Give the backbone structure.
Amino acid sequence: MKPLEEDILGQGIKKLIAAPEPSLSASDKHASAITLAEQFRAFIKASNYPCVGAKSALSKNQMTAYIGSDLESSWDDVALANQLVSFAHAYKKSRPLFITFAAFFPKTRAMSENEFEAALWERIASLQAKDKWFGQQYDEAVSPDPTSPKFSLSFGGQSFFIVGMHPAASRPARQFDVPVLIFNLHDQFERLREDGRYEKMRSTIIDRDVDLAGSVNPMLSRHGEMSEARQYAGRIVGPDWVCPWPGREDEANET
């Protein structure tokens, strides 16, 4: 079965992709996907939600939503990796600012922060293997080594920063009803830096997050200072944290 796809123009989410699921009819899956997308849109649009970048993606109708099944299952991996590659290739053609990709996993059981982190890295490992299997080269602007300060994930030759969200997240801005993986393109961050807009936006997001949570996120760091892998799951970790995934080996990135 192919994923259901629908453009929801004018509603913030440009494309809704509902993965096939054996236990649901196409119409039921479609209705369920629409409902979840609407819930997420309302979550981001809330006045106290801190990420102004996500708000901009919605206001510009530039969010792609993939509705999968279970974060602990490999059911969606091939389809999701394929969609991420297509998303990256489409971005490269016109490079629009404030575009993002969100993958939802509504069939996931209740999980602790540690369990969510483990499941997140299991999916990352599998998705990265699929990207390589599709013949996609790693973005040479970043490192595939999760211990490197220049680490980032790559799909379709474009590097991405991942934001994990789930009900048990310790930071309020990451607490959504079901697990979600947000894929944000690094190229957009670099372009905002070049335009002189990045620092102001970053400061605004941090201030708004403090207003929401009551404290600064201790996991924040800049790309190039410390591996961003520590930030993906949203769990507070110490300096002895070891990434559950050893990284991806690509000939173009081997040293």
About this structure: Helices lie at 26-45, 52-59, 77-94, 113-133, 186-194, 198-213. The chain has a mean pLDDT of 89. The chain has one domain: 4-241. Residues 4-241 form one domain.
